[in-house]
Amino acid sequence: MLISIQPDSIGSNANLFTPKWLQPLIEGTAHGLPVPDAVNTVVQALGFDTMVYGAKSVGPDDERVFVWTTAPPDWAREYDQQS
Question: Is the pTM of this model over 0.70?
Answer without folding.
Answer: no
